[in-house]
Amino acid sequence: MAEILRQDQALEAACRLLDAGELVAIPTETVYGLAADATNGEAVARIFEAKGRPRFNPLIAHVADRQMAEGIAVFPPLAARLAEAFWPGPLTLVLPHRQGSGIHPLVTAGLDTIALRYPRGFGRDVIARLGRPLAAPSANISGRVSGTTAEAVNAALGNRIPLIVDGGPTPVGLESTILKVTDEGLTLLRPGGIAAEEIEGVVQVPLSRGAKGIEAPGMLASHYAPHARMRLNVAEVMPGEALLAFGPARAKGAETAAEVMNLSPSGDLREAAANLFSHLSRLDAGGAVTIAVEPVPLTGLGEAINDRLMRAAAPRDSQDEEH
């Protein structure tokens, strides 16, 4: 079983394991990540093995600063503006991969682009101490609900990895927003912890949507899924269903639900984002066959919440589940 150490006691142990090619689950501001040295092919392969993740799906390389990032990718002017505004933070940029960066090809899944993020907190500290970027998808079983606490990570992966760093509940609770940046503009590949409207307001460039194929993590149809089936945007709860609620007003029949978890009783989207995965996991653990989900607005962070809910509710094919 994994050792669990508080983040204020874990830096040296985490670096020692990562340097040896082992996996470490680390807290970030978004969700917990399953980290490995991004320059070590055997270490990266262990991520796929631990998660059961399809190898055609790329990983995000996490960096400690802009200098490390610019040694890995080419930054068009627009990418530099985005990094200045939102790094460190929950924004991933998909950029042209710089030749000779040292990143192992398993990280990029054979693409000529690379996904980069500069996290806050312990993630940044461990990368800076290690001196190499980390590949770090969410610390969960492929296709299942992302872990936002050390306890959730331990339940999913504790028998597969040597160390979990406990940084408490993650403050954002959703994965990073992913943008592909080219000279022509910006494409939103995955909504996430920074709302599209906030990005557009800062850089004054509209985001396009509609990526071609799998260009970044989190783009498969079935994703973030609990074991229970899900019904979205319900106006009525069927007897015995679990209910994932939102806001102060309840759907008809809510009193018949087997269990109720409210993403945000006040209707606050930031609170809802932070609670999404932990509440889904709690309802799923209750054993209900179906989870009914009340409507969540599509504005702001609601776009990312609805994206995760739609993928969690999508028809499932074992070949399509990843994280």
TrEMBL record:
Enzyme class: transferase
Domain of life: Bacteria
Pfam families linked to this entry: Sua5_C (PF03481), Sua5_yciO_yrdC (PF01300)
Subcellular location per the Swiss-Prot or TrEMBL entry: Cytoplasm
Signal peptide: none
Entry EC no(s): 2.7.7.87
Major subcellular location class: cytoplasm
GO molecular function, one term: L-threonylcarbamoyladenylate synthase
Gene3D superfamilies xrefs: DHBP synthase (3.90.870.10), Threonylcarbamoyl-AMP synthase, C-terminal domain (3.40.50.11030)
Keywords: ATP-binding, Cytoplasm, Nucleotide-binding, Nucleotidyltransferase, Transferase, tRNA processing
Keyword Magnesium: no
Residue stretches making up the YrdC-like domain: 8-194
Reactions catalysed: L-threonine + hydrogencarbonate + ATP = L-threonylcarbamoyladenylate + diphosphate + H2O
InterPro entries: DHBP_synth_RibB-like_a/b_dom (IPR017945), Sua5-like_dom (IPR006070), Sua5/YwlC_C (IPR038385), Sua5_C (IPR005145), T(6)A37_SUA5 (IPR010923), TC-AMP_synthase_SUA5 (IPR050156)
Protein family (similarity comment): Belongs to the SUA5 family.
Functional note: Required for the formation of a threonylcarbamoyl group on adenosine at position 37 (t(6)A37) in tRNAs that read codons beginning with adenine.
Name listed for the protein in its UniProt record: Threonylcarbamoyl-AMP synthase
